[in-house]
């Protein structure tokens, strides 16, 4: 068994359990979790997405953890338990002690009170979107370059592990502006290592090409990140790069996977952009019906909210990937 600990937010600690939780590892689990909990965290998420086995001793360790954390006024949630492990937790009636969530992101949202994102009720849809965009930009502004880099590494790891990535042949991705632009609220997850992975694996990699005058976006194929990209002269200071004019247009019908940035996402796969509508119009051409490519929203944890207000033309994501893991809209909270 391996334990991986990281701070999700300033008051939320995630303990990821990898391997088996049995008689040999239960005591180690209890000691290590208590050690990290003594750092003053009152909100703890036990991430079981990589837990492959749990015995009666492991159940006992979770019960002991619950009792001791409750005595300290701490709240513990369990996330990501699958198949055998989830069945064991239910049979042991632990779903009556712990709130069980399908992924870390939804467990994190459960720690928030509804007031944390403010009351948008009573506002019309444009005003709700404008208010939410403002809050999300403030959340991004609070991130340091170091925290964005560390979060981006975890995002890329999750994306690499997806079967959808392994099976994709033609992928529309995005070049993050975080590489040169550190303006408040403007950073995006840095997926450049994944772009390089795709090129080395022989995938057809396309990147957006923006027509600022015509207010449209297309996609162009690249073969090299060092030779086929140029700074966007129409958006100085934004740190945007796009394919050179010599790059061929990507055949949109061949695209089977799309990685999209956004300003915010929710667990149901709803997305809110920055308001220009470039991706919305491109997606209309890419996904005229349900047979279109798999759409994956890519974001920081700070960009995941309870609910994104949407309009009829807004396209939902097949899944959302953040540093905390993968959210698939079809999964519901297990209580």
Describe this structure in words.
This protein is an alpha/beta fold. It has 2 domains: 2-111, STAS domain (Transcription Regulator spoIIAA, 2-Layer Sandwich), CATH 3.30.750.24; 119-327, Rossmann fold (3-Layer(aba) Sandwich). It contains 9 helices and 16 strands. The strands form 4 sheets. The protein has a 7-stranded mixed β-sheet, with helices on both faces. The chain has a 5-stranded mixed β-sheet with strand order 1-2-3-4-5, with helices on both faces. A two-stranded antiparallel ribbon has the order 9-10. Strand 3, helix 2 and strand 4 form a beta-alpha-beta unit. The radius of gyration is 21 Å and the shape is globular.
Supply database-style keywords.
335 residues, alpha/beta, Transcription Regulator spoIIAA, Rossmann fold, 7-stranded mixed β-sheet, 5-stranded mixed β-sheet, 31% helix, globular
Kindly state the mean pLDDT as a whole number?
85
Shape: globular
- In CATH terms, the superfamily of the largest domain is NagB/RpiA/CoA transferase-like
* Annotated CATH architecture of the largest domain: 3-Layer(aba) Sandwich
Please give the radius of gyration in angstroms.
21 Å
Q: What order do the SSEs take from the amino end to the carboxyl end, as H and E? A: EEHEHEHEHHHHEHEEEEEEEHEEE
